[in-house]
Amino acid sequence: MPAKDQLVGSVIESDCRRCQDRTGHTVVSMVDGQVAKVECRVCGSLHKHRSKKAVSAKSSSGPKKRTGKSAQQEPPPIDPEWQRLVSGQAAEQARDYSMNASFQPEELVQHKHFGLGQVQRFIHPNMIDVLFQCGLKRLRCAPAKDGQQ
Question: pTM above 0.70?
Answer without folding.
Answer: no
